[in-house]
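Hey,
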Amino acid sequence: MEESVLVIKAEKYLKEISNDDISLDDIDEFENFKNLYFKLDDRLETLKQLKKDMEVQGYSTPFTSLNKYGNKSIGEVSLEEVSENSRHNQMFRNKANAKKNILDRVKSAIDSHQIAIGHLEQFGYLKCNSCYKKYSISEYKQLKGKCRCKSESFSFKISRENTYRIGIIPYLPLSGNYRVLMAELSKYGRNAFKKVINALKQERTGHVKTISPLFRYKDKNNRWLRKRVTFDSEFVENYEEELRKTYGKNVRIEKLEFHRTRPAIIDDKHARTALALGYVRYGEKIIDSIRDDIFKRQLTDFKRINNYDLIIHKYNNYTPNFIDEFDVSEIENWRENKIKEEFRKLKYLDRYDELNRSLKRDLKTRETIERTIFENVAPALISWDIFRYYLTTSVSNRRIMTGPFPYIRVELDRQQRKVFQIAYSGVIDILNQFSDIRILDVDEKDLILYEKFKFEKLMQNSRIKVNHPALGAAHLHLNSGIDLETISNAFYVNESKIKKEIKNIDNIKNPKSDKSKRFLELIKK
């Protein structure tokens, strides 16, 4: 396929996606759920093929071909030749930019679809009405709607104990238009976006990826030669031994370079951006639905604030015909005078033509609410969801499954867990009061995750079967002091299952019998 044709094809397909609105109406009904999942999954396959075709044609390094162009001619060059060369150079540069941008959008669209599909997979599952075997929606699609027992009758169930937030799906950059969506964010939305991105970019302590020694050695003719080689991280401890095996005993190391990698919590740029946009735009929707209720309770005169905003907006977006549109200062003076005139009529100004104290106080209160509450809605939501995801999943599940958070680290180190030290008590209280979202206000989430990861290492070689959502709830109960009933309701896990996992934790951490102690020693090795 020609390069220009491929660009046009990709742009056309992404435009089709952007024009197709995602609806979550009655998503708990199987047909609606299935249709949405199948549509997103089919799109993902098409996007992956587009990406593959682009990479084959060199879209990942589009500027390489430009090296042959430029003012490299030898001798005298006419003005016409210089102009022609420059024109060709610009033409190829424009084509290279087009390739780079369209591949960037396709990658963003792929990650956005993976996120949406991951949340849907966590949301529901199918249960065969004949043999009662459970299937994920992806397995159901692969089997073409037929159970291995040949039955085609299924029941659709909601997995309330799983971690998902399907409300973010319509707000993801599914067409790769993340730059457009970022520009449309509100002021507090932009600040929230920065906070989410910074949290997801939190890097773990760097570990050695490769080691490159610069050394001297004697060749067969007894001459000293200098060379540099690179070893993988597995040779960090014995690189000298490896050098002497290959280059002889006379190796003299002159310099060592350690190349470290610092992976982030979500170790992919486009996945981080898509998640941040999804949660922030979803957060803006929540705020729009509850902001009036919040302001009515916190402000002394809610109606006055609305009138204040209307007057400011009215004159800041109006330019009178009798003033030259290029005379900016005159226009600003006119606007300021008209606003003050309106404020005087409504008695919003004192005798010194300043905003009265009560109005100033309300404006300050609103600014504080936007800064401390609205900006933190999205960070609070994603912090809770990732915290719950780590608590309620196993190591193998996080390693194998894409899940609702693609490219997420299997476990976090101390540096990465710092983002869970941030408390969002005020935001959580507001969400619990004014919306149907229920989040627990948990102190020291970072230490609870540490206990969970430590326990996973303790039982990694055992064959003990556990209920992972109940196990996560048990860890939260043991390390937070939150009562069992509250945790049971928040995690949608029966209290009896949580109590069972509490016993499992105690038995593994504190074995009672000699047989249990010997077993524990064995699985530690």
